[in-house]
Specification:
Radius of gyration: 35 Å
Number of strands: 0
Largest sheet: none
Oligomer: single chain
Shape: elongated
Order of helices and strands: HHHHHH
C-alpha cells in the first residue's frame, strides 16, 4: 500500500515538474486572471457610463424645468398687482359684476407632466421647491375654474375665492422664484453652489431675526405689562 502511495506521489511530482504541464497551468491561471480583470473593468466602465448618462439626464430635466418655470414666473411678475388699492379695486369690480378677470385654463406644467415619473432622480434639494411650485400651479388652476363657475350665480362666493386667488398668485410667484434660484445653482454649480446658496439664505434669516427680535420682545413685554396692570386681567 505504501509503495503505491509513494509511486503516486512521485508521479504527481513528476507531472508538476514537467515543463509543458507547468506552462499550461501558468497559462490557465494568467488567462483566468485576465478574464476576471476584464470582467471587472467592463463592469466598472458600464457603471461609469450609466452614471454619466444619469447625470446628463438629471441636468437635462433640471434645465427643462428651469426654462418652463422661468417663462411662467416672468408672466406672473407682469400680472401680479403689488398695489393693495389696485387689488381691492379689481375685487370690487368683480363683486359689482362689472369685470370678470381672465384666469388661466391650464397649469402651465407640460414639461413637468412629461417627466413626472422621473422626478425622483433629481437632487433632493431640487425636488421640494419644484414639486411645491407645480402643486401650487395645480391648485391655482382649479381655483380659477371654480371662480369662473361661480361668477354668474354666486358673485359673493366668487369674490372671496378671487381674493384667495390673488394671495395664491403671490405664493406661487415667490415659490417659482425660489425654485428658479435652486435649479439655476444646481445646473451651473452643482452641490457646492446649492450648499453655498442655502448657507447664504440661513445667514440672511439669522440676521433678520437678530434685527427684529429685540423689537418683537419689547412689544411682547409691553403687552404683558399692560395686561398685568389691568385689574380685570384683560
Amino acid at each position: 500500500m505504501s509503495s503505491w502511495s509513494s509511486c503516486d506521489a512521485l508521479d504527481l511530482r513528476a507531472l508538476f515538474l514537467n515543463d509543458r504541464v507547468a506552462a499550461a497551468l501558468v497559462a490557465a491561471i494568467v488567462g483566468g486572471g485576465v478574464v476576471a480583470a476584464g470582467w471587472f473593468w467592463t463592469h466598472a466602465l458600464s457603471r461609469r457610463r450609466d452614471r454619466q448618462l444619469r447625470d446628463e439626464r438629471v441636468a437635462d430635466i433640471q434645465r427643462a424645468l428651469l426654462a418652463e418655470i422661468r417663462a411662467h414666473v416672468a408672466a406672473l411678475e407682469g400680472q401680479t398687482l403689488d398695489d393693495p388699492d389696485a387689488r381691492e379695486a379689481m375685487v370690487a369690480r368683480l363683486a359689482a359684476g362689472r369685470h370678470v378677470p381672465i384666469l388661466p385654463h391650464d397649469a402651465n406644467d407640460r414639461i413637468f407632466r412629461a417627466i413626472v415619473e422621473e422626478v425622483h432622480i433629481l437632487p433632493e434639494w431640487a425636488i421640494d421647491p419644484v414639486v411645491r411650485y407645480y402643486r401650487l400651479l395645480a391648485v391655482r388652476a382649479a381655483l380659477a375654474q371654480d371662480i369662473r363657475a361661480n361668477t354668474a350665480g354666486q358673485s359673493e362666493r366668487a369674490t372671496e375665492m378671487f381674493r384667495d386667488y390673488l394671495t395664491l398668485n403671490d405664493e406661487t410667484l415667490a415659490t417659482g422664484q425660489r425654485a428658479m434660484i435652486v435649479l439655476g445653482a444646481s445646473v451651473h454649480g452643482g452641490y457646492e453652489a446649492v450648499q453655498a446658496l442655502f448657507a447664504a439664505a440661513e445667514r440672511r434669516e439669522s440676521e433678520r431675526i437678530a434685527a427684529t427680535l429685540p423689537g418683537e420682545l419689547a412689544q411682547l413685554r409691553a403687552g404683558l405689562s399692560k395686561r398685568s396692570s389691568d385689574p380685570r386681567g384683560r
